[in-house]
Amino acid sequence: MRTHVNSVGLLVCADPVLQFSYPDHIPRDCIDALPSHPGVYLFRDEAGTPIYIGKSVNIRHRVLSHLRTPEESQMLGRTRRIDFERTGGELGALLREAMLIREHQPVFNSKLRRQRDMCSIAVRAHRPEIVFAKEVDFGRTDGLFGLFGTRKAALETLRDIAQVANLCAVMTGIEKGSPGRPCFARQIARCRGACTGEESAADHGDRLAGALDHMRVHRWPYDGPIAIVEESGGLRQKQLVDNWCYLGTAKPRRKQVARFDFDVYQILKRPLLAGGLTIEPL
Predict the structure, then answer these.
(1) Of 12, 83, 144, 260, which sits most exposed with the smallest number of CB within 10 A?
(2) Which of 224, 108, 128, 228 is nearest to 170 (CA)?
(3) Burial level of 213, CB count in 10 A (0-12/13-18/19+)?
(4) How far is 247 from 226, CA to CA, in rounded Å?
């Protein structure tokens, strides 16, 4: 926070909030219409293009907080209207926000702007293998660990885990080697000898899977699509989901291809697996 010395020699703080004025170029009617319920809101520019999309359990409260934030003056200066969509609850707002951001790519949204080409670590024949979502259906495949944006990130995680769990650098694919030759970790007593045959491949694979287990990617726990039912302020709504993929609120007229979606997985994993949601199989 900036400070200055006033006319009588006192050191005072120049609080930017005190210098802020309401953006009167945004029509008051769209502000007055904002509900105090869950949903998403869209800041639109002069052409009607969404430049920022957000979500909240209280749309009105959250939007007003934007209007009182001097640090967002650039976004507010380009805004000419604010629209909203109510949802039946917080999960619906999170899912709808992710879908809209991906669809419109708003310039002031720094997250959820792109569908990632995700990869994961699979343990096959006691060894780790990097697999990609375009080749493997993550939502319907067991034995996957971690979700990464790049192959490099997955390998770096493997390297860290190998060091902590005293795993073999050759068996984990971090280091190239030849049969019977000790890896570098074995030479400094940080490997139990899977590279030299002192530890079996099966035992090493079990230790690898155990070290990765905290990153396990959970398989879609239903046989097909479900509806997550939420209700708030008199609005009852069903969010349709399949294979960790959000399908919207209306049952599609024809079968949709439900591909694993990283953002939806992150939103739903904990509440769905914990139970307590109102679920209707479709």
Answers:
(1) 12
(2) 128
(3) exposed
(4) 10
Strand pairing report for 127-132 and 81-86: unpaired
107-152 pLDDT, tens digit each: 999 765 455 679 999 999 999 999 999 999 999 999 999 999 999 9
Alpha helices in the chain (DSSP H): 28-32, 59-67, 73-78, 90-104, 151-165, 184-187, 201-212, 262-274
Q: How many CB atoms lie within 10 A of CB 105?
A: 14
Q: Where are the domains of the chain?
A: 3-104, 128-215, 226-281
**Cβ–Cβ < 8 Å for 42, 101:** no
**Torsion 95-97-102-108 (CA) sign:** negative
